[in-house]
Amino acid sequence: MNLINGSQDILFLALALCALWLTAFIAWFLYYAIMSIKQVYEAIAQIKHKIDAVDEIITMLRDKISASTSYLTLIVAGVRKVVDLLGSDTKEKKKKAKK
Questions:
Q1: pTM for this structure?
Q2: What average pLDDT values come out for the chain (99 residues) when binned by 10 residues?
Q3: Cα-atom radius of gyration of the chain, to the nearest Å?
């Protein structure tokens, strides 16, 4: 029993080999396409993580600066009152010294 009897058998054999190679190529292409998509996904996840960290740092700095400015206004008001009190004491001493 001979496997190849005519030109039609050669055609079917060639078509079978082409289908096999096409299947292998599609599988190889899909593997690399999926790996590329996975790498893009991981890169985007890393970028998102870094952006979240930067956002957290900026939020923390903004909160600290706003808290510092509220304390700073209180400190400035206190220093101003101390300077006024010291200034009034020196004026009183000068007035007493003149009398």
A1: 0.54
A2: 83 96 98 98 97 94 82 83 79 63
A3: 42
Please report the pLDDT score of residue 1 as a whole number. 59
> Is 10 within 8 Å of 4 (Cβ atoms)?
yes
End-to-end CA distance of the chain: 142
* pLDDT for res 54: 94
**Can you spell out the DSSP letters for the chain?**
--S--SHHHHHHHHHHHHHHHHHHHHHHHHHHHHHHHHHHHHHHHHHHHHHHHHHHHHHHHHHHHHHHHHHHHHHHHHHHHHHHHHHHHHHHHHHHHH-
In one-letter notation, the amino acid at residue 29 is: F
Tokens matching residue 13? 């054999």
